[in-house]
Here is the input.
Amino acid sequence: MMNRLAAQTEKWNWRARIERIRCGPSSVSCDHLAFYEDDDCFIRYRKAGKGPPIVFLCDGPATLEVYDELIATLSASYTIIAFETPGNGFSVPKPSYSFSFQKTNDVIARFLRSVAGEQSILAFSCGASYAAVDIANRYTELCSRLIILQAPSWQEELKWRKRRDPKGLISTPFVGQLIFPRMMKPRAPVWYELSMAKGPAVEHFCTCTAHAFDRGATFALPTMFQNYLVGEKAPFGVPEQATLVIWGEQDASHADTNKASSKSLARSARVVTLGHVGHFPELEDPAGFASLVAEFTANLA
Here is the structure.
């Protein structure tokens, strides 16, 4: 109950915030921007290219502004859709929105049906990967294949959550929502330095994220820890779709994670480990990622 009540803080001033986003600089900050809206949420997304759809879910605090190179690399062969979940970036939860595992994924499934159509390749990262796995199980028509990025088994992800919040402050209702917004902007560069391979991508991510926070972006990590990544038993089944798991070894936040446990997420999972990238393999090396995707999708009609 306390977790659900604390989640309501993410929805304050939702009407005014949607209006500011729709008419403000975050509506023109990058190419191919559009908005999806229903009774539960307002979602900012990018859509470009032609061919089989690949859908990416932004892994906060990163926002859509860091997807330029990935879209340019893949859009000649695929329809690329990238979106921010409600509570993250410039997507807004409405009063009826639930941050619980299944209800959140139901909203994502509605977005996919409306914007991507059926038979998409879902390429979700870290904690969001479990949304892709759940949707692949419960809405099989929406997902042809899975690309899982930086995500181990559910139990290993819970250990990762504990390492990221060792004192339990972010995971404590109201306490997390109170302290985390004050930490977001100064802590984002620390997160990128920890989780990414050293190089120019780190500075680019830091700059884009700082600008996004200055324009009013949010990152509902406490609410996700309290409502989404909860329960010792995995809240999803094992999908049948062909699955490619990609790990970037330069991600120090997952140094102690059992990466082989990713195989438990799908019946036919191939695990690829890349030594030169970190937490964002698709964004740190779009060309290398594109080669893996081309191989993975070679027999698509």
